[in-house]
User: Fold Protein white from Photinus pyralis.
Amino acid sequence: MPRCGKDLDSCENSECSEKLNGIARPGELLAIMGSSGAGKTTLLNVLTGRSSPRLVVSGMQCANGVRITSNVLTSMLAYVQQEDLFIGTLTVKEHLIFQALVRMDKHIPYKRRMERVQEVIVALGLAKCENTTIGIKGRRKGISGGEMKRLSFAAEILTNPSLMFCDEPTSGLDSFMAMNVVQVLKELAQLGKTVVCTIHQPSSELYEMFDKILLMAEGRVAFLGTPREAENFCAALGAPCPKNYNPADYFMQLLAIVPNQEEDCKQVVNMMCDAFAGSGYGMKLAAEAGAVEKEVYKPGDSFNGKRRTPYKASWCAQFSAVLWRSWLAVVKEPLLMKMRVIHTLVLAIVVAIVYFGQSLTEEGVMNINGAIYLLILNMSFQNVIPVINVFCQELPVFLREHKNGMYRTDVYFLCKTLAELPLFVALPLLTVAICYYTIGLNPYVSRFLIAAGILVLIANTAVSFGYLVSCLSSSIAMALSLAGPLMIPIMLFGGFFMNLDSIPKYFRWISYLSWIRYGFEGLMVNQWEGVNHINCTENMACPQNGTMVLDTYSLSESDVTTACLSLLGLTCLFRLIAYLSLLLKTYTLE
Assistant:
C-alpha cells in the first residue's frame, strides 16, 4: 500500500513546512532534494516522529489508515540518520549481533537472529570487514566511510522493515562510495521496501538512479515525479535544463535563495511551487493522496497492533545484551583500559618513591598526611576526567538507540555501572598495593585492608561525580569545563587545606558533598588510631601520639565508619541524580 503524507504544517518560530502532499510507493527509491534550509531534514524528522520538541507539529500520523503513536511508529520503520554513530571499539559483526539482540522480536530464537546477522552482512557486502573494528575518528583506524554507511543500513534492515528513511546518506562520501550507497538503497527498494532519502546535490549518475524525486524549496513541494518528468516540467515553464548539465545542479540553482536577492528568489520558488500545484502532475498527486486518505482513514480508530512500547526485547534481554556490549566497550577501549592502568602505575610509583620509608617523626607525620591527601586527589582526578571523556562520547549513541526503541534508560545506566565496576575496583587496589607499605603507613594488615576499601569507595564516588557532570552537560567540552571549577571547592573543603571547624558556616554545606573530606577522614583515622608514640625533636612542639594528630584536623577516632557510609551515600546520591538527568534528556527527545 502506498505511504502518504498530507497537509503537513509544522513551525519553529516561522512556518517551515506547509501543505506537503507526497506518495512513496513500495519498490521505488524516492529522493527528496533541495538546497540547504529547504526543509528536507525537518520533513523527515516529522515523518519519523523525531522532530525537535521546540518544533510545533499539527496533524496526525497514520498507518494502514488508522492513527498511530510515536512508539508504534518507531517499531515499524527504519531511519538511517546523517551522522553514523557507533561504539567504535566493536567489530562490525559484534555491532550487528547486539542490534539483532535488542531490535528483533523477542519470540525469535537466538540461532535465527545469528543467521539473520550473517544474511545482512552478505547482502550489504560487509563480509570482508565483519571482524574489523569499526574505528574511532582520530584515535583508532577502522572501516571506511562507505562501509560505515552500509553498516548503518545493515542495522536498520535486520528487522526487515517495510518503510525506510535515510537522511543525506551520501554526505561526506566520495563519488564512488556515494554510488555504492545509493545502489544499496536501490537494491533495498527492489526488494519491495519503500525507501525515502534526502540528498543535497547528487551527481548526474546518482540523479539517474532515483525512481522518483521530490523537489523542496522554502518548505513547499516544487515537483514530485520521475527525473525525466522533472526536466520536462521545467522545460514547460520556460526554464529548460541546459544540455550536458547536471539536472540536479540546475534544480538547486533554480530553487536556491541567493543572499541579497531573497525577494526575487522567493518569487521564482513560489511561482514554480504554484505551477506544480496547478499542473497535471500536482493535481494527480493531490487526488491520489486524497483518495488514499478517504479510502482508509477512519476517525476514532487506533492502530490495531498490540505494541504499546517501542521495545521489542524484554527487560532481561535488553540487560544481558547491553551488559555484554558495555563490557566489550570497556575491555577494548584503550583510553579506559591500557592508558588508565599505565596512568595508575606511573602515579603510584612516583608517589611511592617520593614518600618512600616515612617514620613516626615530626617530619614523617607531615609527609604521611600529605601522602594520604595526595592519594585521595589522585583517585579523584584520575577517575573524574577519563569517565567524562568516555561517557560523553557514548552519550549520543545511547540517546539515538534509546529513541529508536532499542533499550531503556535504566538498563543502559545499570549496565554501564556494572561493566565498569571491576576496573574501578582494580585500579584503587593496585594503587594501595604499591604505595601503602612503601610509604610506611600503619603496618597492621587490617589497616591495609580498610585503607584499600576506603580508596575503592573514593574512586567510585569520583566516578559517580563524573557520571553526574556528564549527564548534566550538553557536550564533552561543557562537561570538562564544569568539572574543574566544581572540583576546586570539593578539594578545598576536603579537610587538609582548611580545618573542618574553620570552614565558614555559609560554605559548610559544600564540605558535606566533598568525598575528598570523607576519604581524608577515613584514611587519617585508619592511619593514626592506636598510634601511642611519635618521636619529636626536643624543644619542638609536635603531636605526641595519633590522637593529637587527629585533633589537629578536628577528627575523632570514631569517624571511619561514618566516613565509609558517607562515601557510599554520596556514590548513590551522585548516581541517582545522574540517572534522573539522563532520564530527563531522553524525555526531551520524545
Observations:
- The longest helix spans residues 362-403.
